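Need tokens for this chain, all 119 residues.
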Amino acid sequence: MDVKLFDSELKVMDVLWEKGDLPAKEIAKMLTEAFGWNVNTTYTLIKRCMKKGAIERSEPNFMCHALILKEEVQEAETDELINKLYNGSADKLFAALLGRKKLSCEQIKKLKQMVEDLE
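Here are the structure tokens for all 119 residues:
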């Protein structure tokens, strides 16, 4: 995925990923309620996402549709994090995550299962 989205643009995308296709007016209303943004801020962010190829807008009602999947963005962001902070080493990231907090037995079980599924 070649689309790089900033945090504010990801908030717009999160609305579409969670709710599905929506009119721009509805997206603006939701983000105003959640973050106190004014309508013009949201419209500007929608336009930026459109220029980047992340959102498609159609009539009637300036209906917005996500052109990229959340999973694609998560994968690209994770790859960037691993490359930037852990020299491309996923196991170093994994070790850092595990070392940061106490995991429950259930969480440990899930992680072990994920590792076994990879083998």
